[in-house]
């Protein structure tokens, strides 16, 4: 068994933020990641001002990575269209680029990154990880940062069978999206589009199981949505699309309200915000940073977990209320005229769904 002071399962934004802070604080951690190298992730690629600030604190300049500035929100439904400025500048950046930069910063700070290594199970009592290749590792502290994916032995205890599904593809020719995050709202979900650093559009979609089942699969769902929302149909027809990648079982609104000694849950393992709020990466960076700071200060894991759960309560609740309004025809029909009359509500909602600021 390999032993280390801090062991981190998963090198997404949460695991990397924790690794950077720990390494800089004098506890270089061991980071275990199953992907072999840079890869696309099911994510909208939206970085709010809180995510950009969290990245700056880690000395990562999103603009230098090519992040495209976003200053406006566009909401589109079958019948209406609404646009408003965001309260602060945001940005669009692919997760391929962002995660690679975070991993590079973690190793540059002194963390050891084991790539292409899949964790088969965790043993929380001993803070041990068992890898698929048979190796075992044990940390004085174990940070669980495996994101949407459950880690066997350390499951979050949530029923995921009915949780929504996320989809992502990129599309050639996204220049007309410059400066804007575009959200198309429909029964059971939404689709988001933005311009990313290579000039392509990042398209993502979140859809309830019921809606997907009713449509009979991803392709018939996209065809039905293109009929229902002509603007989304035009967007999907606007250029060559890569194949869609999917992730199942995203438990929006869930927060870890407790933990066991020595186990810190970070990122989607700590709190899962409705993706239409575009704050999951900020939550990942903030929770990873806060867990590492707690560990460096000698605080116990449960104090961190309770504290972070309290911080995440308001953004998660506001995001759930917005998701509910956006996904159901009745509230959605009210939402658009209300926003038309009181456009200042949109930036307020955007602010209330941030983990910081
Ligand atoms: C459709 C959709 C759109 C979204 N759009 C946005 C958006 O625009 N902006 C935003 O801020 N958030 C968005 N989110 C949320 C955001 O993607 C997540 O909140 C964020 O990725 C969480 O980061 P993380 O580090 O916790 O987990 P992840 O990013 O999921 O990283 C987890 C890492 O752990 C690794 N891993 C997992 N299991 C194992 C294992 N067994 N062994 C080894 N390694 C493992 C994975 O390979 C991965 O690298 C969206 C989510 C969805 C579903």
Describe this structure in words.
This protein has 357 residues and is of the alpha/beta class. The protein is 35% helix and 25% strand. An 8-stranded mixed sheet has the order 3-5-4-11-12-13-10-14. Strands 1, 2, 6, 7, 8, 9 and 15 form a 7-stranded mixed sheet that branches. Strand 7 and strand 8 form a beta hairpin. The longest helix is centred in the last third of the chain and has 27 residues. It is globular, with a radius of gyration of 20 Å. 48% of the residues are buried. It binds flavin-adenine dinucleotide.
Report the principal-axis shape.
globular
Bound molecules: flavin-adenine dinucleotide
What is the C-alpha radius of gyration, as a whole number of Å?
20 Å
Largest β-sheet summary? 8 strands, mixed
Please count the beta strands (DSSP E, at least 2 residues each).
15
* Widest β-sheet, arrangement of strands: 3-5-4-11-12-13-10-14
Element order: H for helix, E for strand: EHEEHEEHEEEEEEEEHHHEEHHHH
Alpha carbon gap, first and last residue: 43 Å
Q: What is the tally of helical segments?
A: 10
């Amino acid at each position: 068994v390999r032993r280390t002071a801090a062991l981190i399962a998963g090198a997404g934004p949460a695991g990397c933020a924790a690794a950077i802070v720990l390494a800089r604080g004098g506890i270089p951690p061991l980071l275990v990641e199953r992907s072999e190298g840079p890869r696309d992730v099911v994510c909208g690629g939206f970085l709010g001002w809180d995510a950009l600030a969290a990245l700056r604190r880690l000395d990562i300049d999103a603009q230098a990575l090519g992040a495209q500035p976003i200053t406006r929100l566009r909401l589109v439904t079958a019948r209406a269209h609404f646009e408003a400025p965001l309260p602060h500048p945001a940005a669009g950046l692919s997760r391929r680029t962002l995660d690679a930069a975070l991993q590079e910063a973690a190793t540059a700070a002194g963390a050891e990154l084991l790539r292409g290594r899949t964790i088969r199970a965790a043993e929380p009592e001993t803070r041990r990880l068992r890898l698929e290749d048979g190796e075992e590792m044990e940390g004085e502290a174990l940070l669980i940062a495996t994101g949407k994916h459950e880690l066997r032995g350390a499951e979050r205890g949530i029923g995921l069978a009915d949780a929504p599904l996320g989809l992502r593809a990129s599309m050639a020719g996204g220049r007309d999206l410059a400066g804007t995050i575009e959200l198309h709202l429909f029964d059971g979900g939404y689709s988001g589009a933005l311009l990313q650093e290579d000039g392509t559009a990042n398209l993502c979609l979140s859809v309830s199981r019921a809606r997907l089942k009713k449509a009979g699969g991803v392709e018939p769902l996209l065809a039905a949505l293109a009929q229902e929302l002509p603007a989304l149909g035009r967007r999907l027809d606007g250029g060559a699309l890569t194949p869609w990648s999917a992730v199942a079982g995203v438990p929006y609104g869930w927060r870890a309200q407790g933990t066991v000694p020595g186990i810190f849950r970070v990122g989607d393992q700590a709190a899962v915000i409705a993706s239409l709020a575009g704050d999951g990466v900020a939550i990942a960076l903030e929770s990873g940073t806060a867990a590492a700071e707690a560990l460096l200060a000698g605080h116990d894991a449960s104090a961190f977990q309770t504290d972070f759960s309290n911080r995440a309560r308001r953004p998660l609740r506001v995001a759930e209320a917005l998701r509910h309004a956006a996904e159901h025809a009745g509230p959605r029909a009210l939402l658009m005229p209300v926003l038309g009359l009181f456009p200042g509500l949109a930036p307020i909602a955007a602010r209330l769904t941030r983990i910081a600021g």
